[in-house]
Structure prediction request, 154 residues.
Amino acid sequence: MFSVDLSSLKKLEQKITQKKSEMKTLHRRLLYDFGRDTQKEIKEEMTKKNKTGRIYKVYRGVGGNRLVNARLHRASAKLEHPAVRSGNLRNSMYFKVRGSDSVVIGASAKYAKYLEFGTSRIAARKFLERSADKKIHQFATKTKNEFGKLIRSI
Prediction:
């Protein structure tokens, strides 16, 4: 007579099923952190004062009111994050985690797509893409470490 006890195998199967749920939750949290960190990076880069674009006079204020004295504004150059003039673009930044496998990072300002991709008259700034590229390695490392800890706990 030969007998095999599969109770330990069933316990392992239950643990794996439980860890699957934890993995989804963990991945969603890591995506949220990635979106938040990338958004923060973009806003910090936009606010930096080291722009190298052309300087021009601004005759209108933030609300569209005519200024008594024109002020100077330095624009951003090609492949720099856009310079902040009114703060509209910076304040329109957002990120959304979709499910447990994707995050969308963008800006809702009407002119954001023209700054990101460029036009026939404006060079592309690629501020969203470049900031996400900077943070993706950090995200991959963090994900690898966190998932490793979770798998080792089985």
About this structure: The CA atoms of residues 38 and 114 lie 20 Å apart. Residues 7-47 form the longest helix (41 residues). The chain has a mean pLDDT of 88. Helices lie at 7-47, 88-91, 112-117, 127-152.
